[in-house]
Amino acid sequence: MPRLFDTHIHLFRIVDAAGCLARFNAFSLSIAPDDWSGQLSLAESHGALGLHVGLGLHPWQIHTIAETWETHVKMLETHLLHRAYLQVGEVGLDFDRRTPAEPALQKQVFERLLDVAHRYDRAVSVHVRKAYDEALAIMRNFPGLRIFLHGFGGGAQVAERYLDHLNCVIGVNGVVVRENARRYHAMVRAVGLAHLVLETDGPFVNLPGRARFSCEDIETVCSTVARLLDVPPEQVAARTRENALRMLNDTR
After folding, report:
1. Is 123 a domain residue?
2. Which tens digit of pLDDT belongs to each residue from 26-39?
3. Residues 6+ apart with CB under 8 A from 120
4. Residue 252 maps to a domain
5. CATH number at residue 29
6. How far is CA 18 from CA 31, 174, 252, in A?
7. Of 2, 13, 139, 239, whose CB is crowded by the most CB atoms within 10 A?
């Protein structure tokens, strides 16, 4: 089977990162400045193994740097300037009432981060929850920006609207394994392989019924998508890998 590509994983949090990279390629994301050094070290030690890394400011973490976020965005820009391999993410909007940062601050930070990614021509991994209209309105201001929509839960109609207006792919995660996730399954079928990528969000997310994350989880996501689309797993692996490499501007 073609080599799988996990497009959303936090490898610097996984003890056996090299073991995972022996099984698949990865786009490793970070969520706060405290994670950045781990990401950079990971890239320096494992970049030759098919690893891409992103530096991000997650909407759940914005409140912790509310007074200094502009300084951190400038730091991110400096990292991008000196490291051509770096991408941006995880970033986004999350208007769930449990998210500490106010929506206005989230939008301000999100727009600035997208501007940096756009100016440096880097891919960006985007988290969106309960802010689909607001996120789309902001992302449309950056035509051509290469966007991974991480763990997208907006349903088929919203996904199609995003695909109509953005240069994006839809990340399918472990939710697809749930037998009762009918709305999610409908989205996967509506989007189809042309615009899908695979992800685990490990080690923070376990597959249903599993006690902990495993590097093999991406294989389960792949085989489940194959059953939903009634195609061989090899076809899912090949096309989602192609989609990921295209968005990362990686010709390897």
Report:
1. yes
2. 999 999 999 999 99
3. 77, 80, 81
4. no
5. 3.20.20.140
6. 21, 22, 19
7. 139
3-class DSSP state of 8:
strand
Neighbours of 55 (CB within 10 A): 28
Residue 230 belongs to some domain of the structure: yes
* Of the candidates 154, 136, 30, the residue with the CA atom closest to the CA atom of residue 172: 154
Structure tokens at 75: 């730091």
Q: Is 204 exposed, middle or buried (0-12, 13-18, 19+ CB in 10 A)?
A: exposed
Helix then strand then coil, in percent of the chain rounded to 5, is 50, 15, 35
Cβ(96)–Cβ(135) under 8 Å?
no
Domain count, the chain: 1
pLDDT digits (tens, 9 = 90+) for 223-243: 999 999 999 999 999 999 999
- pLDDT tens digits, one per residue of 65-114: 999 999 999 999 999 999 999 999 999 999 999 999 999 999 999 999 99
Cα separation, 128 vs 148, in Å, equals 11
Which residue, among 179, 172, 183, has the nearest Cα to 225 in the 3D structure?
Answer: 172
